[in-house]
Amino acid sequence: MLTLTSIELNAWIAALLWPLSRILGLIAASPLLGNAAVPASVKVSLGIMLAMIIAPTVPALPATDPMSLPGLLILTQEMLVGLAMGFTIRIVFAAIEMVGEISSLTMGLGFASFFDPQTRGRSSAISQFLVMVSTLLFLSVNAHLVLLAALAESFVSLPISAQPIHSGGFQQLAAWGAEIFRSGVQIALPIVAALLLTNVALGILTRAAPQLNIFGIGFPVTLGVGLLVLAMVLPYLGTPLQNLFLRGIETVRLLPRSFVERDRPAPPNPLKPAPPSPPAR
Question: How many domains does one find in the chain?
Answer without folding.
Answer: 1
